[in-house]
Amino acid sequence: MNASQQHMLDTYRAAQRGEAAPILPGAGTVSTAREIQGWLRFRTVVTAPTDRLPGRLARTVRRTAAALGLAQEAPARCR
């Protein structure tokens, strides 16, 4: 039985019992996707740049290179 058939059966049972009909399958899918997208955008804004994936990867590479003795000194800054 697919979702549409189950919904029709539930609607029939609700009508027989005098209850409210159930919501349609997939009725909240678009709004849920928008809420998730908004949450991800919010997390991007409030997360410090060093805590994001590229910053974490760069930090891990630097630490690993330093532990292996492969780290190079940073070039002197021009004044």
Q: What are the main properties of this structure?
A:
79 residues, 3 helices, 62% helix, rod-shaped
Protein architecture, described:
- This protein is mainly alpha-helical.
- The protein is built from three helices and no strands.
- The longest helix has 18 residues, at 29-46.
- It starts with a helix and ends in an 11-residue tail after the last helix.
Write the layout of secondary structure elements.
Elements: H1 3-17, H2 29-46, H3 53-68
**Strand content bin:** under 5%
Quaternary state, please?
A: single chain
Class inferred from helices and paired strands: mainly alpha
Count of helices? 3
Q: How big is the Rg?
A: 27 Å
**What order do the helices and strands follow?**
HHH
- In terms of per-residue confidence, which ranges show pLDDT below 50 for 5 or more consecutive residues? none
Could you tell me the mean pLDDT? 84
The largest β sheet comes out as:
none
Distance between the termini: 74 Å
Helix percent reads 55-70%
Number of strands: 0
- What would you call the shape? rod-shaped
